Every structure is written in C-alpha cells, then in structure tokens.
Amino acid sequence: MLLGGALGLAGRSARAAVPGVRSLMLDHTHTHERIDLVYASGDHYVPQALGSLNHFLRDHYSGEVGQIDPQLFDLLHNVRQLLGSQVPLSYQIISGYRGPLTNARLRNTRGGGVAKRSLHMEGKAIDIRLPGVPLAELRDAALSLKAGGVGYYPRDQFVHIDTGRVRSW
After folding, report:
1. Is 39 helix (H, G, I), strand (E, B) or coil?
2. How far apart are alpha carbons 120 and 140 in whole angstroms?
3. C-alpha–C-alpha distance, residues 29 and 95, integer Å
4. What are phi and psi of 87, to 5 degrees?
5. What are phi and psi of 78, to 5 degrees?
6. What is the pLDDT of residues 11-23, one digit of tens each?
7. Which residues contact 72 (CB under 8 A, 6 or more apart)?
8. For the chain, what is the mean pLDDT?
9. Which residue ranges of the chain lie beneath pLDDT 50?
10. 126 strand-pairing partners
C-alpha cells in the first residue's frame, strides 16, 4: 500500500473528516498492485502522491511511466462521491497511461477500439470498473459530471473516462 503526504498516514475515517482532502484507492487488474493515498488537499496536489500515481498507472506492457493529468484523479474522486458510497471503494484499473508504441501495437492487433491519438498517451484517460457498482451506473455518474469523455464498454466490462472534450460513446 502506498500513501501520499502526511494526511495519507491517517486512517480512512480521519481522512474523510478533513474538509477538502481528496483520496483514491486503486487496484490494477494487470500488475495486481494496490494503491491507497491522499493525492490532494484543498487547492494543492501532493507531489509525492502524484508521482506514486504516475508510476502506478504506467504502461503495464512496457513499464513506461507517463505524466497523468491530476484532473483525471479529480474525476475519479468526483464519480466516487456522486455514487454516494460511505465506504471508500477501490477502482479496478484496466488501463491508465499508454505509450505511443503500445498504443500503435494495440491499434494494429485489436481490430478497432483503440484511437490513433488516444488520450491514454497523454495521461488524460483511464479505463475503470468499480466493484459492486453496475457498469451503467458508473457510466451515468461520469456522464453527469460533464467533465470530459465517457466511453461505455459493457462487453469488455469497463468505462473509459478522460479529461478531453465532453463527449460520449
């Protein structure tokens, strides 16, 4: 378990009691790593936590670490808040950062579904599930924020969210 900043050392309930603290719990489906940290407090992001999240969300094919847009973390946090969970839920991460070589390879081998200029390559997109939350409900929560792109992939069991322009598919 990785923790960010001094607030990260507090228990989850103590974190929830501190106004303006934003935290995430993530499980990576490919690397089997977990992370649970405070990444921001008020208007300030915790640099150490952002570095840990960048590494956690690295290209799981190549190991390449990208720079993830902190607004993506805020989207994840806001979606979780919208879903009204009293207990912090851990997102399952299917894909975070994707390097250009990985993106090209997936684009050429997956028969579609991988954008040539994918926002994953810019650290602005993530593919997720939230155990215990129906996929359509997760999609609807993300759509309601009107804060970026939302893709719905029920066959593959994930929702794509990004910090690009507002759109859905």
Report:
1. strand
2. 21
3. 9
4. -105, 130
5. -65, -35
6. 444 455 567 899 9
7. 123, 124, 125, 126, 161, 162, 163
8. 88
9. 1-14
10. 161
Q: Can you list the alpha helix ranges (DSSP code H) found in 45-109?
A: 47-56, 70-82, 100-109
Cα–Cα distance, 13 to 156 (Å, whole number) = 34
* pTM recorded for the entire structure: 0.86
In a 10 Å sphere around its CB, with 0-12 CB exposed, 13-18 middle and 19+ buried, how is residue 107 labelled? middle
- For residues 162 and 128, the answer to whether their CB atoms sit within 8 Å is no
Long-range contacts of 42-50 (CB under 8 A, 24+ apart): 45/70, 46/4, 46/5, 46/7, 46/8, 48/4, 48/5, 49/3, 49/4, 49/5, 49/8, 50/4
Number of C-beta neighbours around residue 125 at 10 A: 25
Q: Which of 143, 85, 95 is nearest to 119 (CA)?
A: 95
β-bridge mates for residue 24, sequence order: 37
